[in-house]
Amino acid sequence: MQSCVQVCAPTAVLLGLFGRGCASGAQNRPIRSFSWSTRHMSRWNSQENLSTQSPEENPRVLITGGLGQLGMGLAQMLRKQYGTENVILSDIKKPPSHVYTSGPFVYADVLDYKHLRELIINNRITWLVHYSALLSAVGEANMVLARKINITGLHNVLDLALENCLRLFVPSTIGAFGPTSPRDPAPDLCVQRPRTIYGVSKVHGELMGEYLHHKYRLDFRCLRYPGVISVNTPPGGGTTDYAVQIFHDALSTGHHVCYLRPDTRLPMMHISDCHRATVEFMQTPEYQLSLRTYNIAAMSFTPEELAEEIRKHLPHLKVTYSPDAVRQTIADSWPVRIDDSNARRDWDWKPAFGLEELVSDMLSSVRDKRNNEGLPVS
Hints:
Blueprint lengths: L8 H6 L32 H6 L8 E4 L6 H12 L4 E5 L5 H4 L4 E3 L5 H10 L4 E4 L5 H6 L1 H22 L2 E3 L2 E2 L23 H20 L2 E7 L1 E3 L12 H11 L2 E4 L7 E5 H13 L9 E3 L3 E3 L1 H9 L6 E4 L3 H8 L8 H7 L7 H18 L6
Parallel strand pairs: 1-2, 1-4, 2-3, 4-5, 5-7, 6-7, 7-11, 8-10, 9-13
Antiparallel strand pairs: 10-12
Helix pairs in contact: 3-10, 5-7, 7-8, 9-11
């Protein structure tokens, strides 16, 4: 079977073979209509930038949902390695000035297939990182919108990755597991059966990506992220967001109201480890990968354990527990630990942050952020 790397979509089109994806097996696939546009990206898409790029050496990366918790930090890391002009952030929101001036940014709605296609073709994209999604608690509050963004948007991205022979990264989550999954630890391959639209959409993404890899050789890659803890963006409606908010509360009011029970244990990860895992995984040669979807782990703790570690630095911290029925039910269906032994074996994954390091770094980062914004620090 020929892979996407060997026979790409433009060749297949010229041969009259193109459906969706690359030439191998293409005649049996439905065709999306073509449209062409003179629309280009921005000041960053200049002749000077184009003439200095080495597409054979550096990937051209497009990140969807780039203004969320993960996109900006990942873009910064990739730009250091591959050059600023080779990494394009996108979202449907207006970017802050520091984001807009730091590198290429474009408007991109993952539900608009034709516009996404234009961006990929006009900017010669080779890697696509698909971060657009509604998270767990927000998705439960608006299931129809979550289904549209998380599933229809995913289908657009999958089709475009096939059509253009892209290396595609789609994150998954511990939310892809369900109450019947093994919980301590959850392995890479097991019964999943999630009970949120977020989890269902992520399982759907894992399976669709693996199917397209095995049938058409799509270079699909997926990591199941734990709860990701960072200072740069406010909590965005996830079940593990208490582990971000508690640092802000500890340094402002000294009081945090936690929406989970004190003994609710969940897998967590510092955002630096999350970004590094993603980049290292994307850089790994295909022959080293025994799976297309991997667990990655760093630590696992409860709200009570996190609060106790923070109190080593801020003894005055008070935590009140007021479990929210929706988010507590979600958390109770997720694993308390995940087994990432396959990632450690196949591509040498290893986290740098444990709980002690995470707390020290977050307190320092949140304190600096509040001071820079002129906010009080207790």
